[in-house]
Amino acid sequence: MDITLIGRYYERYADHAVSIVRRVALLATGRLPEKTPTHGPY
C-alpha cells in the first residue's frame, strides 16, 4: 500500500515539474515548447 502511494506521489511531483518547466519556457521564449515524440523500438 505504501509503495503505491509513494508512486502516485512521485508521479504527481513529476507532472508539476513538467508544468513548471513549460511555463518557464513560455516566459523565456514567448512560445510553448513542442511536445517531443516518443521514440519506440519500431
Describe the structure.
The protein is built from 1 helix and no strands. It has 42 residues and is an all-alpha fold. Helices cover 67% and strands 0% of the residues. The radius of gyration is 15 Å and the shape is elongated.
The residue ranges in which pLDDT falls below 50 over 5 or more consecutive positions are none
Q: Mean pLDDT across all residues, rounded?
A: 83
Approximate shape: elongated
Range of strand content = under 5%
Return Rg in Å: 15 Å
Would you count the extended β strands for me? 0
Which secondary-structure class do the elements indicate? Answer: mainly alpha
How is the main sheet built?
Answer: none
Our count of helices gives: 1
Question: What percentage of residues falls in helices of 4 or more residues?
Answer: 55-70%
Order of helical and strand elements: H
The N- and C-terminal alpha carbons lie at a distance of: 36 Å
Protein name: Phosphate transport system regulatory protein PhoU
